[in-house]
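Per your request, structure below.
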């Protein structure tokens, strides 16, 4: 069973300085430039918060419905794990 992800060749115009920095980082991570750039782009796309997370972030920023953390109980809980 072939599970390879289909690839499509494309091109982008990037500054020489950026390309060199990407090459250096790819070498540092022992990866090809293509693989390194693709992984960076995938990580960026994956970090987009879903609607539930966005709503929670908005609620936290508003300061409404915040609970107080009892550190003594929290430490006991952590120690029990």
């Amino acid at each position: 069973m072939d599970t390879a992800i289909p690839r499509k060749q494309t091109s982008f115009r990037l500054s020489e300085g950026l390309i060199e920095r990407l090459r250096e980082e790819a070498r540092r991570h022992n990866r090809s430039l293509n693989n390194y750039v693709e992984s960076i782009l995938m990580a960026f796309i994956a970090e987009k918060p879903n609607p539930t997370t966005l709503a929670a972030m908005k609620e936290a920023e508003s300061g409404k419905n915040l609970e107080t953390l009892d550190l003594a109980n929290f430490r006991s809980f952590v120690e029990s794990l």
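The first helix runs from residue 16 to 28.

Regards,
D.
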